[in-house]
Write a structure and sequence with these properties.
Strand content: 15-25%
Oligomer: single chain
Radius of gyration: 20 Å
CATH architecture of the largest domain: 2-Layer Sandwich
Order of helices and strands: HHEEEEEHHEEE
Distance between the termini: 37 Å
CATH topology of the largest domain: Glycoprotein, Type 4 Pilin
Number of domains: 2
Helix content: 25-40%
Number of strands: 8
Length: 192
C-alpha cells in the first residue's frame, strides 16, 4: 500500500506541479507535497529519499509519506486486513476508494499519453498525406518522435506497452487499463 501511495504522489507531483526557478530544494519539495490537494500534512511527514533527476523544467523526486493505516477483522479468529487509510488529518478513506483514486490518476495519465500519440499521427498524416507505417508502438515511436511529437510515449500508466491496431485508413491506440486484459470494459481507446 505504501508503494502505491508513493507512486500516486510522484505521479501527481510530476504531472500537476511545475518547478519554477532554478533548482528546487528538498524543503520546497516537502512543502509542495504536503500541500497537495489541500492535504493537512506537515512537511515533516514527507521525507525525500532522493532527487532522481532535474533538468531546466522537470524534476523527479522519490519520497516517502507518512500514512495512517486502519486494520480490522471480521472476528477474533479471522485474519486482519487493511480497511482504510488516512493522510494527515483528513478523514479515513476505504481501501476501494483509495484504489479507485489511484486508478483514476492512471486513467487520466494514460488518456493524456494517447492524446499525444493521436496528435503525432495527425501531424504526420497532415505533412505526409498518409499514416505512418509501424507494426507496434516502438516502431511507431521511431517514426513520430521527435519530429511529429515531442514526448516519447511507449507505455500506459500501468507500465504496459500501448497497443496499436491499423484499421482501414486509421490507427487505433489501446491501453489494457488496470486489469491488463484486452477487450474489457476498462480498456482505454483512442483514434486519430
Amino acid at each position: 500500500m505504501n508503494r502505491a501511495f508513493q507512486l500516486f504522489l510522484l505521479l501527481i507531483f510530476a504531472f500537476l506541479y511545475g518547478c519554477g526557478g532554478a533548482r528546487l530544494s528538498q524543503n520546497e519539495i516537502r512543502k509542495q507535497i504536503a500541500e497537495l490537494g489541500s492535504s493537512t500534512l506537515t512537511p515533516d511527514a514527507v521525507s525525500i529519499r532522493r532527487v532522481v533527476s532535474q533538468s531546466g523544467d522537470h524534476l523527479i523526486a522519490e519520497t516517502s509519506v507518512e500514512l495512517a493505516v486502519q486494520f480490522e477483522r471480521d472476528s477474533a479468529s479471522s485474519p486482519w486486513h487493511i480497511a482504510s487509510v488516512r493522510l494527515g488529518d483528513k478523514n479515513w478513506v476505504s481501501v476501494p476508494q483509495f484504489i479507485a483514486a489511484l486508478q483514476e490518476v492512471e486513467r487520466k495519465t494514460t488518456s493524456t499519453s494517447l492524446a499525444k500519440l493521436v496528435a503525432g499521427v495527425t501531424t504526420y498524416r497532415q505533412r505526409n498525406g498518409s499514416l505512418p507505417v509501424a507494426k507496434d508502438i516502438r516502431a511507431l515511436s521511431d517514426v513520430l518522435h521527435p519530429l511529429y511529437m515531442t514526448d516519447l510515449v511507449l507505455d500506459d500508466a500501468w507500465g504496459r506497452p500501448i497497443e496499436l491496431e491499423t484499421l482501414d485508413s486509421n490507427i487505433r491506440f489501446r491501453s489494457l487499463g488496470p486489469d491488463g486484459k484486452s477487450g474489457t470494459a476498462d480498456d482505454i481507446l483512442s483514434t486519430p
